């Protein structure tokens, strides 16, 4: 519940009574408490640490008061007095630089002087493109959800177009282009093996 600033003394009492009834602690920022806040802030304590030392005030109240007082410059936050020393690590395994391992992902690694057998480049499967009559060809602006969106040609050329034939229900491509786009995994593996010879 948000309460606006009371206007009369009786309204002030009502607000304070309401807050006490709800279990809220009422803390006023006396001059002494403000000076203590400034001192602790200048020492570099965090808002939580200041709230704990002062008592009866929350971290958010400290942050709000610091903001309203315009306290920005502060010392570095308090940390442990001694610098942390790092342990020097000894390697758990002795260095094996220049030695080939025979385990893990290098177990099948070929030696540098081994003869390398060159495999023929796999030939891509030939795609028999169907001829789309000029009246059925589509541009990006004339595609609909029921037309095939298979691109044909180079997008940088003037004769670039999309298939434009009727697509299968719920598919972006016509049956011919869907067969090219959605090949079963086994068929693709078989085609790669056949291309290698």
Description of the molecule:
The protein has a two-stranded antiparallel sheet with strand order 1-2. About 30% of the residues lie in helices and about 0% in strands. Among the domains are: about 60 residues, no CATH class; about 70 residues, no CATH class. The chain is elongated and about 90 Å long. By secondary structure, it is mostly helical. The protein has six helices and two strands. The chain starts with 8 loop residues before the first helix and ends with a helix. α3 crosses α4.
Looking at this protein, list some descriptive labels.
single chain, 197 residues, mainly alpha, two-stranded antiparallel ribbon, 6 helices, 2 strands
List the helices and strands and how they pair.
Layout: H1 9-21, H2 31-42, H3 47-54, H4 59-69, E1 151-152, E2 161-162, H5 175-181, H6 185-196
Antiparallel strand pairs: 1-2
Helix pairs in contact: 3-4
> What is the helix tally?
6
Helix-strand category: mainly alpha
Estimate the mean pLDDT confidence. Answer: 75
Distance between the termini: 79 Å
Sheet with the most strands? Answer: 2 strands, antiparallel
Order of helices and strands: HHHHEEHH
Uncertain residue segments = none
Number of strands: 2
Estimate what percentage of residues fall within beta strands: under 5%
Helical amount: 25-40%
Supply Rg: 38 Å
User: What form results from the Cα inertia axes?
Assistant: elongated
Question: In what order do the strands lie side by side in the largest sheet?
Answer: 1-2
């Amino acid at each position: 519940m948000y309460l606006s600033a009371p206007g009369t003394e009786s309204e002030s009492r009502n607000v304070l009574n309401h807050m006490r009834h709800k279990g809220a602690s009422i803390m006023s920022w006396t001059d002494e408490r403000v000076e203590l806040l400034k001192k602790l802030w200048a020492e570099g304590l965090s808002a939580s640490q200041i709230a704990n030392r002062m008592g009866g005030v929350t971290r958010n109240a400290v942050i709000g008061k610091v903001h309203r007082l315009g306290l920005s410059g502060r010392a570095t936050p308090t940390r442990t007095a001694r610098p942390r020393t790092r342990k020097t690590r000894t390697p758990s395994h002795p260095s094996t630089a220049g030695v080939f391992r025979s385990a893990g992902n290098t177990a099948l690694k070929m030696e540098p002087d081994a003869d390398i057998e060159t495999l023929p480049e796999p030939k891509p499967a030939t795609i028999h493109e169907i001829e789309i009559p000029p009246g059925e060809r589509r541009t990006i602006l004339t595609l609909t959800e029921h037309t095939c969106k298979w691109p044909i040609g180079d997008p940088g050329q003037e004769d670039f177009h999309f298939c434009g034939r009727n697509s299968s229900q719920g598919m972006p491509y016509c049956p011919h282009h869907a067969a090219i786009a959605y090949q079963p995994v086994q068929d693709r593996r078989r085609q790669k093996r056949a291309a290698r010879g």
